[in-house]
Amino acid sequence: MATLDEIRNEITQLDADLLALLARRRELSLEVARSKRADQRPIRDTHREQDLLVRLIQQGRALGLSAQYVTQLYHLVIEDSVLTQQDYLQRLANPMQAADETSVAYLGPLGSYSSLAARKYLGRYAQVSEHSCSNFAQVIEAVESGRCQFGVLPIENTSSGSINEVYDLMQQTSLSIVGELTYPIEHCLLVAVPTELAAIDTLYGHPQPLQQCSRYLAQHPDIHHVFCDSSSAAMAKVQALASPNVAAIGSADGGKLFGLTSIASGLANQQENMTRFIVVAREPIEVVPQVPAKTTLIMSTNQYAGALVEVLLVLRNHQINMTKLESRPIQGNPWEEMFYMDVAVNLHSEAMQRALQELYPLTRSLKVLGCYPSEDVAPTEIAPALLP
Predict the structure, then answer these.
(1) Computed over its alpha carbons, how large is the radius of gyration of the chain?
(2) Residues 259 and 239 sit within 8 Å (Cβ to Cβ)
(3) Which residues are within 8 A (CB) of 289 and not within 5 positions of it... i.e. 6 or more apart?
(4) How many Cα atoms are found within 13 Å in the side-chain-facing hemisphere of 295?
(5) Which one of 94, 159, 277, 340 has the fewest CB atoms closer than 10 angstroms to its CB?
(6) Is pLDDT at 385 greater than 60 in this prediction?
(7) Distance (Å, rounded) from C-alpha 251 to C-alpha 328?
(8) Within 10 Å of residue 82's Cβ, how many Cβ atoms?
(9) Across the chain, which distance is largest between two alpha carbons, in Å?
């Protein structure tokens, strides 16, 4: 019978083999992207993905693996393959994004959700120069001035809704939206030294996360709350104190930057708490036809009944799916509204170009804020009839 050390050594070797195989699979994904570029075929083939998952589920069951386990695992593999192919094609179409170094501006100090989102989006760059800003206007100015190549701005949250200040700033800037990403907001209880929940008597945190975790915190009424200017400041305070009696509320990834570990997670009242970020740059980018794209427009309609309805009918007639519609006051024009619209289509597609030709006469002003790859890769769904 093998010893525990021998079993662990075999697992370690298997893990190394799995990583090597995943790396090889990614290399093959790039070969697929090169082929699709030559043939002008779309990145995703949902029918093939469905067939792949059904076959893998069958093979997995024969090996004692559940359908759920195989599906979850390969959803991640397929997502990585799609994003790898998208990134390859986009780099060829936009040589400026193929550099190894870049710079980014974001709101808040190191460890803020904006900084974590920026790191996630720009993770393909070997070196990133980060610039912390104290407000959204500074992020915009840093990119407009050329001091930073990119700016990362939160645009909406599943819990608190749209970030209106960002929408208002986008009315005035000449920057283009060149990317998007959705970042999960998961609040954790972070500590600097090994301890137990029962030992915590002081909790540092920004008022907003504390409010978002009110139900959990109500179960621990003896813990004293200390407000901080940001979650990063709270984590830095706990790091400095290094006490078993204090904790911070923040993200696990942010905590790692301060040497903190999580002793409780999933604290938010609303479990599905996500923030959507946009990425802005001085120049627009080209999105190749094979890559799923979004286009963001800003417009003001003519002042008569049904004007907005006419705009929406244009999109319907060209089978363009609108994914977001937001209205904001026009600065300096009381009682007039500016509409922000996200549509799931490439700006240079035939359908979108025809729609724009019809939209211009229906609007008083119309501006394209950007066309960019859609970063959200929807999991492949399998119809029950296809399952063995």
Answers:
(1) 24
(2) yes
(3) 40, 42, 346, 348, 349
(4) 20
(5) 159
(6) no
(7) 31
(8) 20
(9) 83
Give the model's pLDDT for residue 325.
Answer: 92
| pLDDT, position 387 | 62
Report the distance separating Cα 370 and Cα 177, nearest Å: 4
**Which of 114, 120, 129 minimizes the C-alpha distance to 232?**
114
- pLDDT winner (highest mean) among 12-16, 118-122, 226-230: 12-16
**What domains does the chain contain, in order, with CATH numbers?**
4-94 (1.20.59.10), 96-184+273-281 (3.40.190.10), 188-264 (3.40.190.10), 293-372 (3.30.70.260)
Q: What is the pTM of this model?
A: 0.80
Q: Which of 183, 159, 187 is nearest to 255 (CA)?
A: 187
User: Helix, strand, or coil here: 48?
Assistant: helix
Tens of pLDDT, residue by residue over 229-287, are: 788 889 999 999 999 999 999 989 889 989 999 999 989 888 778 889 999 999 999 99
How far, in Å, CA of 309 to CA of 178, rounded? 28
Report phi then psi at 387, rounded to 5.
-75, 145
Distance CA 157, CA 55 (A): 37
> Distance between CA atoms of 340 and 170, rounded to whole angstroms?
10
pLDDT of 219 over the 70 cut: yes
Q: What's the confidence (pLDDT) of residue 33? A: 92
End-to-end, the C-alpha distance of the chain in Å comes to: 37
The mean per-residue pLDDT over the stretch 38-48 comes to 87
**H-type helices in the chain, by residue range?**
4-39, 46-62, 67-93, 113-121, 136-144, 164-172, 207-212, 214-218, 231-241, 252-257, 307-317, 350-359
